[in-house]
Amino acid sequence: MFAKEPVSDNSSRRNFLASTAAAAVGGTLVSALANPPAVHAAGSDILKVGLIGCGGRGSGAALNAMHADENVQLTVLCDLFPDYLQHCKENLSRTLGKQFAVKDDHCFTGFDGYKEVMKSDVDVVLLCTTPAFRPVHLKAALEAGKHVFCEKPVAVDAPGVRSCLQSTSLASVNKLNLVSGLCWRYDYGVKATMQKILDGAIGDVLAVQENYLTNPLWHRGRKPEWTEMEYQTRNWYYFTWLSGDHNVEQHIHSLDKAMWLNRDEPPVSCFGLGGRQQRTEEQWGNIYDHHAVCYEWASGFKCFAYTRQMKDCATDVEDYVFGTKGKALVLKHEITSGTETWKYRGDKPSMYDVEHVELFKAIRSGKPINNGIYMSYSTLLAIMGRMACYTGQKVTWEMAMNSQESLVPEKLEWGAAPKVEIAVPGITKFV
Ligand SMILES: NC(=O)c1ccc[n+]([C@@H]2O[C@H](COP(=O)([O-])OP(=O)(O)OC[C@H]3O[C@@H](n4cnc5c(N)ncnc54)[C@H](O)[C@@H]3O)[C@@H](O)[C@H]2O)c1
């Protein structure tokens, strides 16, 4: 069903996608930077890193970056909230030794804190905030000539995805690195398994069942002194405008594999079912607690995507791939064809470290990595599924890509927050 071509970040097809992406999103021309990034070919220069979003993942990403290259220092921290920043600063200063070089005047907070990071002399920024803010942070970082590590998902709505596609072109034109936090693409076992599937190990690939069935997550409560905006941004997971909903925030890891199996070619359309059965109280904002989406590609390939966050239910996280000659369990690194079973038995370094090893290697070698197309497409794949579940309508890729639904307020300030409305299929309209 698929042509057997090697998958490479530098393939001409991917470059074609990168150059057409800008056209697809309105054709705004991106141009070379007035101050291109410094070249670090010697390998011994100290690379300076700034972290934006000092929560769980941001603190982890900073550690991964420091593990990846001994000539790297963390010099800037930024978070929406001073208490999060302080907590992260104390932890990292204890664990990083001389690689921790953050001075007090290089710590920034608030909605505009990221602008100070861009003005600083860091070479690399780690974008690890709540997803809603990623498109603006990504654009600012690349315009400032910084290399980027960009956590998933990269947006919560189509305007955000379109912005990220433009930023992807900017990175490409200016030879800046853009490494995505879709970490399974950097996992040796998953990469080997996916490559074998793409090379024909299970014959023609017909379908994938993507399960992400887990328990519920955290809630951070409410304090009387918090404005509604502070309450929502601290409990960002439960508000669609901040997280994209859990099928975008979390299931994207699986949906990205469906995109990968299709060599990052987008699907034609999808339909979906979803709702909230356990998380019905006000504290759970407006996201659903389950989604089931069926995506279809022009080739006939289908992805059956199931995700649930409910307590006391069966859990399972796996990618079940079905082909004409066999099947594969991607996270188990296992492929079965006839009576033969292959299992990946190679090295298993932390995929989170590998992301940063490859980022710094690429900066130092002057051969940039740009994961912008797949991180944007996989984000839209997830958003498209949410749109289908929320509206009850069939949604095409073109509808999703051109959607005018803009969830993130243009002006961000403490005080009121977006209205919390729960989507009802058949009533909620596609925008
Ligand atoms: N790749 C992975 O395996 C993986 C794992 C966990 C989380 N993540 C992703 O990382 C991101 C963060 O998740 P987390 O678990 O660390 O959440 P978290 O709540 O622990 O941290 C988010 C941090 O970002 C800060 N923040 C929010 N908006 C900001 C803004 N505008 N400017 C500066 N700081 C801001 C918050 O105050 C908070 O400290 C999410 O996009 C999530 O999907 C990825």
What does this structure look like?
- With 431 residues, the chain is of the alpha/beta class.
- The protein is 35% helix and 19% strand.
- The chain has helices at residues 12-24, 56-68, 82-96, 113-119, 134-143, 158-173, 188-198, 228-234, 240-243, 246-249, 252-261, 351-365, 372-391, 397-402, and strands at 47-52, 72-79, 107-109, 124-127, 147-150, 178-180, 205-214, 269-275, 290-296, 302-309, 316-323, 326-329, 334-337, 340-343, 395-396.
- The strands form two sheets. A nine-stranded mixed sheet has the order 14-13-12-11-7-10-9-8-15. Strands 3-2-1-4-5-6 form a six-stranded parallel sheet, with helices on both faces.
- The structure holds nicotinamide-adenine-dinucleotide.
Mean pLDDT: 92
Strand order, sheet with most strands: 14-13-12-11-7-10-9-8-15
Could you say which small molecules are bound to this protein? nicotinamide-adenine-dinucleotide
**Through-space gap between termini:** 34 Å
Strand count, sense and barrel status of the largest sheet are: 9 strands, mixed
Count the beta strands: 15
Q: Percent of residues in beta strands?
A: 15-25%
* Morphology call: globular
- Report the total helices: 14
Q: How large is the radius of gyration?
A: 21 Å
Uncertain regions: pLDDT < 50 for 5+ in a row?
A: 1-20, 22-27
Order of helices and strands: HEHEHEHEHEHEHEHHHHEEEEEEEHHEH
Which structural class matches the secondary elements?
alpha/beta
Helical proportion, percent range: 25-40%
